Amino acid sequence: MSVYFRSLIFGKRGSMFQELVHKADLGNGYYQNPILDGDYADPAVFREGENYYLTASTGPYYPGLSIYWSKDLVNWKLICHPLRKFEGEVWAPDILKYKDRYYIYFCGQGTNWVIWSEKIDGAWSEAIDLKIGHIDPGHVTDEKGKRYLLLSENSMVPLSEDGLQTAGEMRQLFEAPEISDQWDIEGAFPEAPNIFKKDGFYYLTYADGGTSGPATSHMIMCARARSLTGPWEVSPYNPVVHTWNRNEKWQSKGHGHFVEDLAGNWWVIYHAYEKGYAAHGRKLLLSPVEFMEDGWPLVTQRADEASKKPAGEKITDTSCFSDDFSEEKITGWRAWGKFDPANYRRGEDGLKMQATGADIFASNPFTLITGDHSYEASVYVCPEAECEAGLILQYNSRIYNGVGLKNGILTIYRLGCVLAVKEIGAEECWLKMRNDEQYLCFFYSLDGMHYKKLNYVINTESQNTHAYNGFLSLRPGLFAAGKNFALFQNFVYRGLK
Fold it and tell me: What letter would DSSP give residue 159?
């Protein structure tokens, strides 16, 4: 395809279409959840002056971790991927600034890790193994400035002054009380502990009840003390955040992080599944926090109602999913499994992707996070000999749907298995997939304008963690399997009403 023809579709700065359907900022001083639409689980946030910085789990996708920037907690912009060489899944990070350094603590490979940088969007260190068990690390300092790491089961371990190693034995800070049997839960799993300080108290918040089971399972609990050593008292208003019945729009609400804005108001960012759309993963919600007369925090406003925005400037984010692959830039593309930047070469001709693995099962698809209920994605694909390449909607290495081109034959996949094949007599073509309220279908074109539907429609609603575990989501993207390379041009994403 010529550069001229590609410019007709794209222009110079991206897609001519509106991309994401959902906009959190309503433009009238209010916002509508989610603030990040798609799989952004286990959020952590902190404020530095007028700026907020956020990160979330990236699981088995690479590059690991991402940092987002905002000035109003509603409009977010991706600014960097700080973890690029780490091998293994990345979960439940905490992000903070201590003195003149930024830190991210996270768990993976059965241990906990830390990276640091002197610039939030600059060069971050390699991951340092803290060689400590449990999960979901959270950083806190005591009244003397001594550093600690909070961990699941509300445990705590002292850290060195530089925060790069443990400096003592782990002990349990607080034993979580039994959860009421009036709610259906997965079980008692106290995790995601975090502490914020207010009016002379340490407020400990933690998640409990399980992450993705019954709608009412996940929740945020609270306890407080005058000192990290206790004694701790339990909030009479627990749970602070909760899905109270299975008919609510936002389900399994939990794993929250509290932050104070410039005006002294408090907010909590947490994740939740959208009812009927568990395949989209855990989306990020923002709720105002009220403090009762006795000083306890509580979220009383419904998460599905429009809320007044926090004060702050609305940042401009010109990034988009659509990509002509002509230049290196910070994007939301992530590879499944092992990530090697050399396998994804951008240039004026498009994206040249190295085929990896004998088949899709063993390949490293390049995918994006989206939470749109309906969307289309199209791309021009030209695989070399012995290479199969195309579009994919992936949950994990075994569970995926897609359409691939090889030797003039299109193959449609459902749940990782061949569903149908069609010979088109061309070694290159345009491919498109449409996800319409979780009903997925594929199209092909020989000229980039007239598309023919491959009428094998796949219901993807059940392809989620409840069926296949892993706490993952269905993500659209590109794949190349086998040998040699595939050329991709003009990936166009369009959100549909």
Answer: B
Q: Which of 245, 237, 217 is CA-nearest to residue 299? A: 237
Beta strands in 74-154 (DSSP E): 77-80, 91-98, 101-108, 111-117, 128-129, 138-141, 147-151
The 3-class SS string of 239-279 reads CCEECCCCCCCEEEEEEEEEEECCCCCEEEEEEEEECCCHH
Residue 202 CB: number of other CB atoms within 10 A? 21
SS3 137: coil
**Block residue for tokens 């990936």:** 491
Write the single-letter amino acid at 364: N
SS3 category, 395: coil
CA distance 83 to 87: 10
Q: Say which DSSP state 124 is in.
A: P
DSSP 15-51: -SS---S--SB-SSSEE-S-SB-S---S-EEEEETTE
CB-CB contact of 163 with 208 (8 Å): no
pLDDT score for 18? 57
Cα–Cα distance for residue pair 416/364, rounded to 1 Å: 14
d(CA 381, CA 402): 13
Tokens of 245: 């019945």
What Å distances lie between residue 307 and 25, 27, 248, 316, CA to CA? Answer: 10, 12, 17, 21
- Given phi > 0 = left and psi -120 to 50 = alpha, else beta, which region is 303? alpha
Query: Are the beta carbons of 212 and 471 closer than 8 angstroms?
Result: yes
Structure token digits, residue 123: 């060069």
The ranges of the chain with pLDDT < 50 are: 1-17
Pairing mode of beta strands 409-414, 475-482: unpaired
pLDDT of 20 reads 72
The DSSP secondary-structure symbol of 122 reads: S
Rounded Cα distance, 430 and 314, in Å: 37
Q: Report, in this order, helix, strand and coil percent for the chain, each rounded to 5.
A: 5, 45, 50
- Residue 49: other Cβ atoms inside 10 A: 7
Judge whether 164 and 188 are in contact, CB under 8 Å. no
Give the span between the Cα atoms of 436 and 496, in whole angstroms: 8
With tokens 């899944």, the residue in question is: 89
> In angstroms, rounded to a whole number, what is the distance separating the alpha carbons of residues 258 and 205?
9
